Amino acid sequence: MRTRPLGQQISHLLRAQGVEVVFGVPGVHNQELYRGLAEAGLRHVLTRHEQGAGFMADGYARATGRPGVAFVITGPGLTNILTPMGQALSDSVPMLVISSCLDPGDAGAGKGKLHEMKDQEGAAATVADWSRTAADVEGAYRLIGQAFREFRAGRRGPKHVQIPVGLLAAPAPPWPEETPAEGRLLPDPQNVLAAAALLGRARRPLVILGGGAAQAAAEIRRLLPRLGAAAFTTYAGRGTVDPAYPLWLGAMLARPGSREVIASADVVLVIGSRLSEVDLWREELGHTGRMIRVDTDADAPVDRARSSYTIRADARAFCAALEEALGDRQAPPGWTAVECAALRARWRAEIDAERPGILPVCEVLRQALPADTVIYSDMTQFAYAAKEVWDLPAPGLWHHPFGFGTLGYALPAAIGGKVGLPERPVVAIAGDYGFQYTVQELGTAVELGLPLPILLWDNDRLGEIEASMVGAQIAPTAVRLRNPDFPALARAWGALAEEPRSPAALAEAVGRALAAPGPTLIRMRPGLA
Q1: Are residues 316 and 288 in the same domain?
Q2: Which strands sit side by side in the sheet containing 248-250, from one edge to the other?
Q3: Residue 389: domain span
Q4: Angle at which helices 76-90 and 50-64 pack, to 10 degrees?
Q5: Residue 303: what pLDDT?
Q6: Are residues 24 and 158 in the same domain?
Q7: What is the domain count for the chain?
Q8: For residue 136, what are the CA distances in angstroms to 17, 32, 167, 520?
Q9: Co-location of 388 and 455 in the same domain
Q10: Tens digits of per-residue pLDDT, 358-382?
Q11: What pLDDT, in 10s, does the model give residues 249-293?
Q12: Which end is more exposed in the chain, N or C (fewer Cβ atoms within 10 Å of the end residue's Cβ)?
């Protein structure tokens, strides 16, 4: 190791932290970050927009479990990536954004400098776990190291490190060596015993599993039959429960009838979920019995849930400890498979009636795709219906912009996912309106030669907003749009395109797209199935 420009050293530091891929856009203010990429063995993916870089880093992180890293320039480069950062913050996705910033004497001074902002650090702080400026070389190393330590310890949200333009070019000694330490938040044994005692007396226990429970899927699948518990997941928690589990209630917490079901439970165990607005779409969960809430985030809101016990712990560690503490407990007969199956069937019928024509297409796609397909969906009616009824065999197979609810997520996030998992089938599902937010990233997918099916639900409108306006007795306004010829647009970038007219043709198109040498746009219209 030797003295090199700081920007060059940062590439080597990232490689030492296990980073393999960086997404970004180079510019005159951050070009020093690019000096060491090839030398350090880092792959760089050039995106068409910084928003695409952020969503790709998000998709990569969700697919691999490793932090996604993005490089952006001062000013507009950073503001363009704020939306993906907000999405990563709401969904607890590990992302490191490294940007340049103006030198201390110029930042916020009103000198009319290129890319000048009043408070760049503060702007990023609104959508990041934290946003900080490196004052010197040691500070840059310290902040980047802190980000990765926090990722390993379970603080998974986005971090932003900005480095002055002049400092990036300054000579820098090697960074101080440190031994990476894995961090797991272990539960207090007394809390586990209290939870086991409460659950041990329960006659009708209910478990609700969020995205934070995904790493504990194996433990949860052993635990549920021992508890005799019925189980819901949030949308983010899908795949944690085996769909064949007889007391499985699905990802249907937002169904109006779920409130009464939850109220019938005498103990509710919530693992890895904030039970936020986008999980419930109502003010309260509806439970009347005792609640145990397990989460690594001590600041997650609990007032909506009125928890009896709040246990701060890693989900996997808690479930293993609870399994041991339960001893030889025999499952109570409070729930029946017939009851749970009837509830799911009733709710599925409701969804089919609310969004007609979507569920049959979902079934065609579910059968056409390999079981281990990783799916990225956008804010679109098709995904809203699918994420309630499309059962998953394992967690981490469906990614959606849940909390922040950004449009344009699916395509770039799926590109990031495919970069991270090149041997796995990856699919994007988007609506006709949201797709146009990031459609330019088709060029990135073509450039990378990614076999990526892009399932486009095209109904020529903002369908969900139109329905909401009608429901609110507002004359539908600004919800119809003039779309481009999507297949022709895809072909203009060098992508493939198909317009299947039947369920069988859709299944065949998906099969071809998975084996294609590049991305394939598959345009789906209402009435397809």
Answers
A1: yes
A2: 248-250, 230-233, 205-209, 267-271, 290-295, 309-312
A3: 355-524
A4: 30
A5: 47
A6: yes
A7: 3
A8: 20, 15, 7, 46
A9: yes
A10: 999 999 999 999 999 999 999 999 9
A11: 999 999 999 999 999 999 999 999 888 888 888 888 989 999 999
A12: N
